[in-house]
């Protein structure tokens, strides 16, 4: 199982970024996917979740209305569109899934929101 996240970077408050996570090594279309984030000195937290068919999504309260998770099962890729970014969104963002009860993580991509 491998995840490769991309799309992070430095952005000003109010700006937008789109993260991508390319997955391989498992039947991507059969599994729910999540984005987590971990800010400096804080615990990793769930940001967004999408079911295998993309029919249903869930979000942390802190990002509702600003972030959108989506997936392209033909490309084995999950996305996180982040709009109206705030300094408190600064973190390393990870994609994740659970296979047979075990979590799998990418290496993460750093998002820094600063003027």
> Could you say which structural class the secondary elements and strand pairing correspond to?
mainly beta
Low-confidence stretches: none
Global mean pLDDT: 96
Rounded Rg: 13 Å
Q: How is this structure best described in words?
A:
This protein is 0% helix and 53% strand. The chain is mainly β and 115 residues long. The protein is globular. The model has no long low-confidence stretch (mean pLDDT 96).
What's the gist of this structure?
The protein has strands at residues 2-6, 9-11, 17-24, 33-38, 45-50, 57-59, 67-72, 77-82, 91-99, 102-105, 109-113. The protein is mostly beta strands.
What topology does this entry show?
Layout: E1 2-6, E2 9-11, E3 17-24, E4 33-38, E5 45-50, E6 57-59, E7 67-72, E8 77-82, E9 91-99, E10 102-105, E11 109-113
Parallel strand pairs: 2-11
Antiparallel strand pairs: 1-3, 3-8, 4-5, 4-9, 5-6, 7-8, 9-10, 9-11
Descriptive terms for the model:
single chain; 115 residues; mainly beta; four-stranded antiparallel sheet; 53% strand
